[in-house]
Amino acid sequence: MIGILENGMIKVGIVGGTGYTGVELLRLLAQHPEVELTAITSRTEAGMPVAEMFPSLRGRVALKFTTPDEAKLNECDVVFFATPHGVAMAQAKELLANNVKILDLAADFRLKDIKEFAKWYGMEHTCPEILAEAVYGLAEINREAIKKARIVGLAGCYPTSVQLGLAPLLSPKSTGGKHLIDGTHIISDSKSGTSGAGRKAEIGTLLSEASDNFKAYSVKGHRHLPEIEQGLKAIAGHDQIGLTFVPHLTPMIRGIHSTLYVRLTEAGKDVDYQKLYENFYKDEPFVDVMPAGSHPETRSVRGSNGIRIAIHRPGGGDTLVILVVEDNLVKGASGQGVQCMNLMFGLPETMGLTQIAVSP
Ligand SMILES: NC(=O)c1ccc[n+]([C@@H]2O[C@H](COP(=O)([O-])OP(=O)(O)OC[C@H]3O[C@@H](n4cnc5c(N)ncnc54)[C@H](OP(=O)(O)O)[C@@H]3O)[C@@H](O)[C@H]2O)c1
Predict the structure, then answer these.
(1) Taking the CB of the first residue and of the last residue of the chain, which one, N or C, has fewer CB atoms within 10 A?
(2) pLDDT at position 147, please?
(3) Range(s) for CATH 3.40.50.720 in the chain?
(4) DSSP structure string for 113-165
């Protein structure tokens, strides 16, 4: 293992250390036995000790924030970008040239089609050649490719819940190539806590706007839609995928709950879906297929890298309902990043990620 045997601790830099995913990376990496945090950036808080902004890290993180220019990112073994889209792609070439691995929490290295990227993110992709080699960071689906990757575009928060919720129904590994569901009419009714919108000031996430309230948004098209469709097509190995994706903002801080509706085909009517899901995920340390009839709660994964899934077939009919919960900041972002980092450095995949969810 590179980190343990050859080079000592893995030197980690974080660009965007003051945001919600940034502080979540700090929480996880400060407890990781093979990691030495070496650089944390903030343009607005440069000079401030990290533990002054986040007292939860007092005694655990001794670094100060530095500007991205002052941070010695080229001397790191790996850099996480916990920044808005467009930041990682501006620095990727130089970092890779200095043998620094990259994990981007934003969308720069997720969509493979640069026209789609420009359409949904309102900017041209500046390094398509690096995008071509980037691996999509969803360990349960892309484990072997992530192990060999220099650069990983981590899966988005909603896309993680939807893809892992549907993978057993689409992957030829579990379907044997049969079309068990009508893949062209999938519905994903997804809800997120307000931390999904980041730490920046916005009217919609003010306490008096978001608490005691519940609403859908971006129904005509959300940026995660093309990412989910791209991922589902790759899992299925064909292009006949159509998704209606409706995200909602809920009055909680952390958590995503996706309720997925699929119509079974004739070929899919006699399948034991509980068994299918249990088999598909039997060796996955972070995916829990709950007993039949369960109703997973977001608080059962809060603060942990776990994702819990329950399968229902109401009235024994031809509609399957899959319930999925995850913590958007952990399995939906920073925990997923640490999981992929472990794979990239040959470490046990669960290292630093064994926290039990915080309840109540
Ligand atoms: N929140 C979630 O649940 C979630 C889940 C999955 C993925 N993501 C993605 O992860 C990324 C970070 O999300 P977040 O929620 O942590 O955002 P956030 O709370 O808004 O934080 C953004 C961070 O990026 C820094 N930053 C902003 N512009 C920058 C620039 N041009 N150069 C360098 N640093 C810059 C900010 O610090 P300064 O302005 O001080 O430099 C801040 O630390 C986003 O792309 C988001 O889509 C978020």
Answers:
(1) C
(2) 98
(3) 2-133
(4) -HHHHHHHHSS--S-HHHHHH-EEE-HHHHHHHHHH-SEEEEPPHHHHHHHHH
Average pLDDT, the chain: 96
Q: Nearest C-alpha to atom 46 of ligand 1 is from which residue?
A: 106
Distance CA 79, CA 74 (A): 9
2 pLDDT exceeds 60? Answer: no
What residues pair up with 41 in beta bridges, in sequence order?
15, 66
Q: Which of 308, 220, 319 is nearest to 263 (CA)?
A: 319
Three-state DSSP at 22 gives: helix
- Residue of 53, 79, 83, 152 best suited for mutating to test ligand 1, as the one with most atoms within 8 Å of CB: 83
**What residues does CATH 3.30.360.10 cover in the chain?**
159-328
Residues 140-194 have pLDDT tens digits of 999 999 999 999 999 999 999 999 999 999 999 999 999 999 999 999 999 999 9
Q: Report the residue among 21, 70, 103 best suited for mutation to probe ligand 1: largest number of ligand atoms under 8 A from its CB.
A: 21
Write out pLDDT tens, residues 253-275. Answer: 999 999 999 999 999 999 999 99
Per-residue confidence band for 76, with pLDDT thresholds at 50, 70 and 90: very high
CATH homologous superfamily for the domain 2-133: NAD(P)-binding Rossmann-like Domain (3.40.50.720)
Hey, what CATH class is 159-328 in? Answer: alpha beta
Closest C-alpha residue for ligand 1 atom 29: 83
Residue 157: active-site member: yes
Residues 38-63 have a mean pLDDT of 97
